[in-house]
# Entry
Amino acid sequence: MLKTRVMPTLLHKDLGLVKGVRFDSWRRVGSAMQSVKVYNMREVDELVFLDITATREGREPDYELVDDLADECFMPLTVGGGVRTVEHFERLLKVGADKVAVNTAVIERPEVIAEAAATFGAQCVVVSIDALRSPDGGLEVLTHSGATPTGREPADLAAEAQERGAGEILLTSIDRDGTMEGYDIDLIRDVAAAVTIPVIASGGAGTYAHMAAALLEGGASAVAAASMFHFTEQTPLEAKRHLHERGVAVRI
# Structure
C-alpha cells in the first residue's frame, strides 16, 4: 500500500518565502534555505516549492536557486512556477527537482503535459489546479496565481490532465488558502472522484483533524500545508502520528 504523504509547501516571492490568505495579503516567513534545513530534520515525506510570481512576471524558473535548495534537500522535491515547456521541466530535473508542477501552461498549452510525461515519465508531472468557489457554489479554475479566470471546472480539468499523462494533481482551494479553517472537502471529493491518480489536497489546513478529513472524507491521497507549519507549533511528524492513529497508512 502506498503511504499517505504530508507535504509542507514553500511559496517563494521575490527574495524569500511568503504566506498569504486566499492568494493575497502576503507576509514574509523567512528564507527557503532555512526552511529546507528545518524540514530535513522533521522527517518530511516530500517538499513543495512554488515560485508564485514567475508566471505573472513572464520569467522562467530560478534554476540557480532550485539547484542550491536541492543540494540541501534530503527529501523528494516538487518545484513549480514559471514552467511552460518541456525544456523547463528538463532544466529543473537536472538541477535536482524530483517532480515538476505546472499550472498556467495546463490551460495555455496543455500538450506540455503529454510531452513531459513522454519524455520524463508521468511520475515527474504534477498538474497544479487552483480553484475558486463562486457565491452560488460553483467552482472555477484560476491561473497566474489566482489572477486569471479560465471558465474550466477543476474536476474536468483534472480528468483531462490525467488523460494527457499527468502523474498527480496538486489541488488548492483559493477560498481556504491561508485561513487554517479546514480544506474544502467537497472540492477534494469532486476531483478525487474524477481521476485515479493521486490528488494532493492543499489550502486550509489548520489542524491534524483537517488533514484526516481531507484524506478520509475527501478521498485525497496526500495533504499539503503551509500556514499551520509556519504559524503554529504543529509539525509534519506529529501530523503523521495523528493520521496513523486514525488508521491512515503513513511513513513514521
